[in-house]
Amino acid sequence: QVQLVESGGGLVQAGDSLRLSCAASGRTISTYTMAWFRQAPGKEREFVAHITWSGSSTYYVNSVRGRFTISRDNAKNTVYLQMNSLKPEDTAIYYCAAQTRTPAAIWTSYDYWGQGTQVTVSS
User: If we measure between CA atoms, which residue out of 2, 29, 11 comes closest to residue 114?
Assistant: First the structure.
């Protein structure tokens, strides 16, 4: 079993930056594909980004490409999401997820989830 705990969310203004962290425990995530999803009120869970086990490949949803960066430190069993130039439409609960199969942008592909961290961007 893998336990995931997100942190780093908060209330910021448009144009600001935040860095989210996802700390894993229970098992090393060095062989896991890791991803970030988000869910805004009244909306479905949305894929944000994923990263392969080695960190050599990343993929982003179009709306965040160029502003967000996903990265990982397997030695620290932690995944990050650097979010720059934040917009009000980025407001959501952000979730970290893990799975051992081919990277995917579908939330049902992921086996382990954190509890989420709230990001609120004011205009």
Answer: 2
- Amino acid in position 74: N
**Could you tell me whether strands 18-25 and 68-73 are parallel, antiparallel, or unpaired per DSSP bridges?**
unpaired
Report the alpha-carbon distance of residue 31 to residue 42 in Å, rounded.
34
The tokens for 38 are 């988000």
- Residue 89, classed as helix, strand or coil, is helix
Q: What is the pLDDT along the chain (123 residues), one digit of tens a residue?
A: 999 999 999 999 999 999 999 999 999 999 999 999 999 999 999 999 999 999 999 999 999 999 999 999 999 999 999 999 999 999 999 999 999 988 889 999 999 999 999 999 999
